[in-house]
Fold:
Amino acid sequence: MTRILTASLLALAISAQAQAGPRIEHWTSDSGTPVYFIAAPQIPMLDIQIVLDAGNSRDSTLPGLSQITHALLNTGAGDLDADAIAQQFEDVGAAYNAEVWLDRSMLSLRTLVDPEWREQALQTFVTVIGQPGFSESELERRRKQMQVALKKIEEDPGSIAKRAFYQTVYPDHPYSSPTAGTSDSLAAITRSDAEAFYQTFFSAAGAVVTMVGAIDRAEAEKIANRISQALPQGPAPEPLPAPSAVTEAKTVTIPHPSEQAHVLIGQQGVARGEASHFPLYLGNYTLGGGGFSSRLMQEIRNNQGLAYSVYSYFFPMRHLGPFRLGFQTRKDQVDQALDAAYAEVRRFVADGPTEEELEHSRNSLVLGFPLRIADNASMIDYLSMIGYYRLPLDYLDTWTARISAISHEQIVAAFQDRLDPGQMITVIVGGQDQP
Amino acid sequence: MRHMIDRLSLRFLLLLALVLPHTASAEPPPVFTRTLDNGLKVLVQPDTRAPVAVQQLWYGVGAAHESPGQTGISHALEHMMFRGTERYPGESFSHTIASRGGRDNAFTGRDYTAYYQILSSDQLAIAMEMEADRMQNLLLAEADLEKELEVVKEERRLRTEDRPESLAFEQLQATAFQNHPYGQPVIGWMSDIAQLDQQQLRDWQRRWYTPSNARLVVVGDVDPEQIFEMAEEHFGAIPNRETTPVPRRQEPVQRGARNVSMHIPAQTEYLLIGYKTPVMAQLPKKQRWEAYALSMLTSILDGGNASRLAKRLVRDRKIAASASASYSLYSALNSLLVLDATPNPGHTAEEMEQALLEEIADLQANPVSEAELQRARAQVIAHMVYAQDSLRHRAYMIGMLETNGLGWEIEQQLVAGYQAVTATQLQEVAQRYLTDHARTTVTIHPIDVTAIPTP
Structure:
């Protein structure tokens, strides 16, 4: 019964390969910015994202600089002060946002497409991204806010663990730069630091503009031109150097008064766009990515009752992004849970998934593909990823076919190539009592 | 300035009058409903943008139905619903959904417990079959329960014990409500979770998981008639048991402000203020404007960066690093309007509290400006449109409005409800409800972590 069922599902899966993703239009703006657009006429709204190579790995000697620079944009630009900017957006129901990750950042706008409302939102957006004032008093205010944010991170065992994890997996590399900065760096950042960061890393040549919404191609072209003309016109930032390999296992233990210990295990994994990402992604579904069905979930949560959340994933970046496995457990159970987690990783790296697991993971990902692009919010996130990492335009069209074609051998080979359970980093926050 | 407001107000009326009622896309699409003979209500909202669908099964039971000593039982049962039936043993519910490309999970609130699956719309039948199966045939095995309660305790440690702000929120509810069940945490008190047993969970499921206490919501690329037939096939034969409502636990009148100081390991001071407020579901129809007004008031305070808390406390006076306001418009029972804030370095929680109270006093003493009202209204419209992008959110709204006794139709009336609120009404609800006698304040005073004795 089960056999027949899965066989018929596989047939369905293979037929699903023919299913194309949404129609992506791609061109380069007048100022040299790559643009990606999907027309989505059904809901009268428009999403715009500007993806920048201005993540906090660009902080250099001043951790937190990327965050502060992004946070300053909407506090004064052109003739508008912070109040006017907020009012211009919100009077027409528009939502502006700036987000900073490790190896990219994003400025986004969501607006209604009603022409007058859209124009007001867009005009404000273009002013904010193109003419930021970086005033001294707003810098002081943002500095204080960041200091408070830093304290909140320091009271949260999960955030402490994450910071220590990156510092240990990427020693002396920009990927270890703490997002929210340090108390020293926050105190040191000046107005001219933020301005220089903006001029260098927000350049039109280094940016990507993506749009999904109820507009046509001609309108999209005009919008993209306005955005890329507004950005600094300098060259794209120089690429970051690749991180050097870490070949020694290391355990970092940080005391914390929390009830649970937060544990992270991992090492450098895979870069975005590498062919290996597909077998690693598919294999990790079985190990710790596939929600309730993963081995880690099954063993550590369901069988042993040790944790509420347990997962593993590969996080591809421009350079090798990390493989990360994480869970939280009562302090006296750390050793038991660590043993179980390491046993699962070793077993998986040695043998890969069973035939049944492989089939399950393949079906799940292939049949689940339509869910990934079911709404505008998901589509623009894919567009931004495709654009920023220069993935092929048919990335979504060929995704299910690539997943379907992966063999057991390819998974085992990729895992053995990328993961070495004998060389992993382990971070435990709160794992021991206070001295 | 004046001109801009007039222009905006004109645009607003144009949008409202022309765009909204006439384009299906700007207002929530229609909902098709059918009630099966056993009382199960089925609600379907078609959306053909992508070949996917969301199914949510909502039960009208949550933390507010629980008795003292048994808190967290609804949530624990939610966990156990993923531990199998005879037909679909172990973790095969989620496994089966995943094998067909779907995702599933569940959530428990004060008024409801809901289960959902998102999958290709041609895979709905299996989701429905399994949902109907676990409604009646849950195993609730002793050995599984023992492990699952440990998982729930870890969840509580993760979400509450180790998060100062969550602990403060739990204290706010528990202090504001002495008899009213919203004083109970949804996840349950740790010692209550520890004493839950198989029989209690069995009884709980038997009592509440019955067709007339459930709503099945499907949103996505589906045909309503087909969904009704499918629902009849899988749920139609389940016998109904009438639920007996829990005794109403009326909150005694509060006779003065309440203050709680929490001394816990933390790095920053933090402040929560809650005011007892009525909600739409509890107000007589002709007084429902009060709920819209309270919601609008929250938007005036915290509806974005131009709103008062961000402008005055964060930017102008620089007392707060962050400040926000929230109000549960859709709760089944009367709830709290909550303000929360983290003071900036150099400012104390007391100054922060004072500043928030001044904002409340201002709302009571002075009418809000027309510009602020228009902005709040524009945001209501925009958010109605943006919310349509997410199938999950739409199913959530339908299921929640139905379960909390408001009915899905309310969503179609929201824009008009907000539009009708006047500055005078805002002032009126501020004066009536945001009073010292209805206020509870919780403050976190951080203690030095190195000074904590080892337990």
